[in-house]
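Write out the 3D structure for:
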Amino acid sequence: MKRFMIRKITLILVFLLILGVSGCGGGKGMKGPSDAARVTPEELYKQGAEQYQKGRYKKAIESFQRLKEQFPLHRLAPDAEMGIADAYFSDGSYVEAELAYRDFIYRQPNHENLPYAMYRVGMSHYKEMGEIDRDQTDTFMALKEFKRLIARFPRSKYAFLAERHVLECRKRLAEREFYVGNYYFTRGNYRGALGRFETILKEYRGVGMDYKVQYFIEESKKGLIRQEAEEKAKREKEEKK
């Protein structure tokens, strides 16, 4: 009786196993879902490029990402990586774009599009620059990346574009220093103002603010001398009491 029960259970398990296999196989000549969805790298890249041209950037990223993951060693994989970064950039997702361009630079250190990727890293920060009364971290980062590109690929056409943006970034940073300096100046903090104005002449000379800054430096020095004289007279008066 015990042997019969064991045999019966064994037959049931075998039957279920066969049923499962036949269900997965789908029959001779039939294609599973994975076969139907299988496409070539060229087709995936074409899909991504077409979606990008139509402004469907998220769809483009999906196609490029699929190519990158399924065919990492294919000749189109680097182009897909660049496509992902460009799609993020065109969609206004500059943080994601910067990360994608940096990923391309890391993975493709000798690629012919390396200058372009470095330029776009700088532009990702450039697009995020705030007004002069806001934090200027992105302006500093953009300037740093543009300078890095110029130093490494001085003859690249992207280095030429970067040089123009370097001037714009330096001017923005100078304007930020002047904004803070003028804030101090109008409130009688001449020492703080002087430090800011002198920084402009030291770090950002030649951006079109030299004459104006020189005037405020002189006025700040006069204000500082006047304040020191007033404080000295006040101390002497108190000592005589």
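The CA atoms of residues 29 and 162 lie 58 Å apart.
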